[in-house]
Every structure is written in C-alpha cells, then in structure tokens.
Amino acid sequence: MRILISNDDGYLAPGINALADALAPIAEIVVVAPDSNRSGASNSLSLDRPLSVQRASNGFYFVNGTPSDCVHVALTALLDERPDLVVSGINNGPNMGDDTLYSGTVAAATEGYLFGIPAIAFSQGAYGWEHIDAAARHARDIVQRYYQTLPRPYLLNVNIPNRPYDQLNTVVATRLGRRHHSEPVIKARDPRGKEIYWIGPPGACKDAGDGTDFHACAQGQTSITPLQIDLTHTTQLNALARALA
Amino acid sequence: MRILISNDDGYLAPGINALADALAPIAEIVVVAPDSNRSGASNSLSLDRPLSVQRASNGFYFVNGTPSDCVHVALTALLDERPDLVVSGINNGPNMGDDTLYSGTVAAATEGYLFGIPAIAFSQGAYGWEHIDAAARHARDIVQRYYQTLPRPYLLNVNIPNRPYDQLNTVVATRLGRRHHSEPVIKARDPRGKEIYWIGPPGACKDAGDGTDFHACAQGQTSITPLQIDLTHTTQLNALARALA
Amino acid sequence: MRILISNDDGYLAPGINALADALAPIAEIVVVAPDSNRSGASNSLSLDRPLSVQRASNGFYFVNGTPSDCVHVALTALLDERPDLVVSGINNGPNMGDDTLYSGTVAAATEGYLFGIPAIAFSQGAYGWEHIDAAARHARDIVQRYYQTLPRPYLLNVNIPNRPYDQLNTVVATRLGRRHHSEPVIKARDPRGKEIYWIGPPGACKDAGDGTDFHACAQGQTSITPLQIDLTHTTQLNALARALA
Amino acid sequence: MRILISNDDGYLAPGINALADALAPIAEIVVVAPDSNRSGASNSLSLDRPLSVQRASNGFYFVNGTPSDCVHVALTALLDERPDLVVSGINNGPNMGDDTLYSGTVAAATEGYLFGIPAIAFSQGAYGWEHIDAAARHARDIVQRYYQTLPRPYLLNVNIPNRPYDQLNTVVATRLGRRHHSEPVIKARDPRGKEIYWIGPPGACKDAGDGTDFHACAQGQTSITPLQIDLTHTTQLNALARALA
Predict the structure, then answer these.
(1) Most buried pick, B133, B138, C165, D153, via CB within 10 A?
(2) Start and end of every Survival protein SurE-like phosphatase/nucleotidase domain (chains A, B, C, D) (predicted)?
C-alpha cells in the first residue's frame, strides 16, 4: 500500500511527523508538504509563479506552495506510482462545519480525491498538539479498518479528540455543523503607525446539534464526515429555473 | 440599495471596473478588492500576517490579501452599513464545474453568503475581456431582475458568454459540470538551473451534458448555478454510519 | 532628455506621482515602479521567481518586485532607448546616514548607476508627504541645474526638507552621518496567540555633526551626498594584509 | 566565546550546517537563519509585516524573514547575551566585487557590524557545495587565527575556493573587484501565456586585476576583503561642494 501524506501546517509540524511515523509500518509513505505554515490556504493553487521542491534530511519533500500545490505536484510529477490513498494532517486544531471551506488540510485531501484517489483529512479537536501520538495511532487504526471497505472514491473529514489513546474508542459518522459568521477583524497599528487588520477567530457554533461533527467532538467522539465537492444547490435548482423562465 | 463589489483579478482589472461602472447607476457601490491578481486563491484567508487597506484615486479600496480577506475586512471593519448584495467579478475566464473550488471570484461571493448576504459571482466564459462591457451590462440586468425575487439567502455562480450585448438573451439555471482531473504540472528550469514546476491547465470536461454550466456556455447561454456550501456527502452518510457501527 | 523614474513606495505613492508631474515638462519620462510598498528593500533582487509587468491607466509600469528589479527590468527589457538619467523617489521620509544601506529608494538609483547611468535618489526629510509638490519642483530644479555639469557617472542621495517651495533655497554637499544601532524589535502576539516580532525604528543619530546629511536637514537645508558603491575598507587593507602575512 | 551564525540560503542549507558543525567545538553557537532561500536579499528588512521565529529539532532558530531580519531579531530579542562574533554563510557561490551589494550573506554580517560586533561573511568561490566541509574547517581556522588580533570592529568578506582542505593554504587581503553590469533579464512566458521576466546572471568581470578578490579566487587563494559601510563618495565631495556653491 502506498500513501501520500500532506498537510497545511508545514512539513516540520508535529502532526505530520506523528502521522508519518504511525503510517510507516503499514505502508510505503511519501510526504510532500508545504515549506511553512499555510493554515487557511483553502484550495488555493499558485498560478502566478513556479514551485520548487526540496527534500529534507528525513526524506520529506517540501514545496514553497499551498497544500493543494503539494498534492498536485506530487501526483503529477514527483511520484513514480499512483498512491492508493492520500492523507492530510494531522492538523493543529479542528476542521469542522464551515471551517472545511477554508481548511488547507481538507484541501490537500480534496486534491487527491479530484484525481480519483481515496482521501482522508485528519485534524485534532483542540489546538496545542496534546496527545498527538495517540491521535496518529488512532488515525492509523482508521486507515487500516476502513481503507478497503468504504465505497470509492471517498473523501473523509476526520476530527479526533485530544485524548489518550485508550480513550479514543468511539467513532461516529457525522454531517458538518454550521457556525455563525466570523468574528470581526481585529484592528491594530503597526510600529510605524499604519492601521492594520488581523483576521479574527471563527464564529460560534450555530448548528452543533445531534449528528454534527461539533456534537461528536463535544462528546469526546471521533467524528468522520463523508465529503463531496459538488457545490450545486440542488434543491434550489428548480426554483431558480422557474424564476428565470 | 448598497452593493459591495470584489474580485480575484485585483482592483485594477477591467472586469471589476466594468462591473462597478455598470452597477453605479442603480446602487450605492463600494469596491474592496485585492491589490494584485489572486486567481486560484480559493477561500484562503491570511491568518499569519495583518492586512492593510488603501484607497485608490477612483475611490476603490484595495487590500494586500485574498478575495475572502477583502470581503471579510469590508464587512467587519470598512463598511458603516451592511450591504444588500455582494457581487464578485467579472472574472477573466470561466468558473465552471470543479473550478468553483479553486476560484477566488466564487470565494469572494461565498464570504458574503457566509455573513448572510445574497451574493453573486460573475465570470466571462472565455479569457481576454472581449465584450466585457456587454457582460457588465448583462450582469446589471441580472441583478435588477432577480435581486428581489429569489429565495434568500442565495449564492449564485454566473458565467456569461463573451458576446455583444444584444446576443446575451438566454439565461438558464444549471448544475455544475465536472472536469477530468488537471493536466500535469509543467517542469522547467529557472535561469539558475533550478528545477521548477508550474501548475498546469485544468482538465477537460467529464460531465458537460445537458443541464450543466459547461453545456449552457457551449450553447452561448448565460449559466446561473445556485450554490451551497455544505460539503457533507449526504447520500454516503448512512453507508458510512453502517460501516462504522 | 530621457528619464527613468522609480521608487520604493510603489507606483501609486504621492511622491513618485509628484516627481513624474514635475519632470514631465522637461524630459521624456518613463515610470517603472513596484506594485506595492517595498520600503526597506535595499538592493534586493528577486532571483527565485519571475517578474511580471503591468501598465496602469496613467502609463506607469508596475512590477511585482523590488526597486532594483524595476530598474533592472526597465533597462534590460522595457526601454527601447537607454535613459540619460535615473531618478528615484520622492521617498516618504528621510534616507540619511546608515539608512542608505536599507533604502530601496537609494537602491533603485544605484541600479541605474551600476549600468553606467547618472542617478539621483530623492527623499523628503520627514514623513507624511507635507509639501511634496514643493519637493518635486525643487527636485526638478536640481536635475536641471546639475544634470549636465557634474562629473560622470554620479550617484547622488538627496534629502529635501518638508517646506514650502520658496523656503527651499539652500543646497549643500554633505557626507553621510552615522546612527546608533537600531532600536530593539517590538514583541507582540497575533490574535491567535503566536509570538511575533516587528522590526523597530532606526537608532538615534551618532554622528550628526557639521558636514553630515543629518546636520544639513536639521538646518532646513537640502542635503546632497555623492555616493559610491565600493565597500572595500581601503584604510584597513594594509593592516589586514600585514595580519595575514 | 559566543558566535551568532546566520546566512541567506536558509537554515537547512549545507553551508550553514557545515559552518555550525565546524564552529561548535570552539564556541557557544546560536544559529538564527531564514526559513527558506533568500539569496539576493541584500540588506532588506521586513517593515510591513511581523516576523515569527521557530526552532528546529537541531536547535537552529528559523525566521520567516531576510538575513538582516534574522540577525536583527537575534541581537535584540532572542539572545540573552551579546555574541562576540557574527558569522554568515557559508554561501553557495561567490560574493565578490559588486555582488556584495546584493548579497544576503554579506548583509547578515553587516547587521552584526552595525551593532558594533565583529562580523565575517563566508562564501564558496563556486556553486554546488563541493568541498563544503573543507571550507567550513578553513573558516574555523580563520576565526581562530584572526578573531582576536584584528583591529575592531571589523567586517570581513571571505571567499574560499572549492578545494580539499590541504589545498586551502593561501589567504590574501584583497579589495573588491568590479563587474560589468548585469546580463539582461530573460523573457519567457508562463504556462498561461503571460509574459514574465527572470533576473539574469551577473555581468562578467571588469576589474579582476591583481589585488582584487576575483584575482585571488582565480589563483585558488582564499580572499579576505575588509569592508566598510559608509557609501559617501569622499573624493567627489569637494567637487560637488564647488558645483553647488
């Protein structure tokens, strides 16, 4: 089994190192990840400049680009053989609800899925890397248990609570919850007196009810949401057609 | 009526200038757009550095950030009053099918939609700005005709053929088509001999059948796709739940 | 007479616009400047990515690069004929003493000088663009009066007090003063709690004595310092040779 | 003895690793270097965004900034005690003649010198890292032999031939040579058809005569040039004063 691993926190992040360590015993792994933190990169691709690829002493490839760039370059130029699975993460902090739109972690997995390869994005439910090794071992369990059996292709968004390994025992299928819109930007001044704006934190949960990823994580459960990438609002389509007629 | 206008080609692009000119007679407009071309930016947000905002001599605001950054800063810091509509574009070239995942034009509109505001992304069906003024006038027609009547909130993805205004007479409701995966990266060497990789062109159409945006544009029709942003693969959810049980 | 104009504040800055307006009546001007503020760019060149050039509605060219990139591209690709003079600025704030090492304004002029073309860097003695039109008119006077007569090639660093035009009546030849080393970086935290560091202000004057650019500006005089670019410490050379022998 | 080490090729480059390994036995070393290759950065400082600092598993600090940023942050925020020496490099390729104006390697040393600390910039005479360990051992010899005895403060620019250690036996004091101006930019098109420009190679030697760094390196000798940072063209100063009078 061949697994391509990427992330959005950069190739040096504890999350991708823990994930690579956990998967190395069960698969031939290749890591291709951004050279630095690209959180919030979404599916962005670098179209106006070329990318370069370097290899670190531990064998990881790193790219001066986005998560999507990394998987794109890996699949179309670096890898001799098509991987059986693309995994992304483990992200520092949750990617739930509307966050998935902005997430570079989800985007890296999405890029694999667009090439027809099963793909899984892994995130920890809370920031700070606590219990990252437990999360990585748990991620390996998920790969081993479900890699073969799920209908293909699939794109899974997995959020793992920050807990010791022996407390990671419930895995539930969820839908994405919803957040309220983001908090306002934070105004400040730089040391030269110029007004600057920092993007603020995400909004509070709006739909965190039973069945959502937010709800599962609040219960200490691992949440797995199956994703698709067709943004068509199917249920509005007929109404729109009538309005245009 | 107050309209916030953004794009991903940058505040100097012909498309946003044509759109602003076309909408100014029917609304109070504010333009907040990236300082330079950010095509392919997707929904990316700048989380690791602050943004700054400047104002050009024509009154447009420009931001050293992504399309999502621009709408985010506009809605939470720059505008005194909430706009009634967010429009984005007119993009240089189509945003159809899977392109919508990568598109900064769609992302700018999406950011407005996430704040609960009706939003429309406009793109031209072909590159090169030919008939951009016709497209802008047609965009205004769409705003005037449908702004009030569609069920809210809505997020529309509009692709307009590059044609003279009097040939822009058919508007159809579509679903997003599908592309084959992207072409491989293009390998090259920079003048110092270093290997570099350019992201290549999008893949050819896979689903361009009747009812898709691709099909509409091929027929010379304006395509309007209603979008939603919940990536949950609802039809896979039960199967996944059974597999996890 | 053909003059190439650049700066480091970006092609939209009031300083370069005032300078272009002032010089247009006496020369054929071409403006090639950075797309955004590149203060502190020094002589940096963009070696790891290609540059692109756009043209604004007022005819100015702008480049996604540094001041040195701009002059380099102008002289080796954009201009059909070699200019007779390269001018840079007018910078927002002073470039005196050790500042000249960091200054993109001085760097743009230096790039012209390296190509064998007379070059002048203009800065205002204080921030805020007050009396920028007076400074531009005064800059034109300097070009007209001294362009022909100075021994060539020359590289001049000019700092002009922020004063009304009729009070800009003394021009003195100066040497660069010296500053104490810079103030410490300013530590802060970004909204996500990450420790960040802002480069702080330059140090106070150490040598601002008679004959320096600092002294001239303090007296309300325009300072002109002739620059050279050979960093060899000639007076240490013999001592070093003896030490190595 | 405490030594601060930086470079412009990034903290992962073979040159800085070889230099750190060579100096560790004779001094307490701290490495603070850019997160990625910043060749051509000159003395540029990042004024419009904050810097962040991370620490690699080998103890090296890396900064999302320029060489000058790195030394600046190290000296004013990271280090508890002032270092006795700042060294920079070993650069991949030469920094001779006019190259010193553009060099980030020289700039990192210059930043130390501006803070009153002796500083040495090391470069290899040819690209490709051949004999980098020999160069590093030779660099240590230079530090050990001359650190104490040279008049202070000093800023030395050292270029070491790519040779085995036992052939690195001649060290000469040199002045900077001169190059002809740079080769033209290289025009190309990106895959989307947009015209782009790559900065081309430096010009050929103009003054590579006896006594220059170019000449020393051509003879297989290690070149040490003492640098100063006052750009005043002292010999033109009187002529300018007369012209202005």
Answers:
(1) B138
(2) 3-182
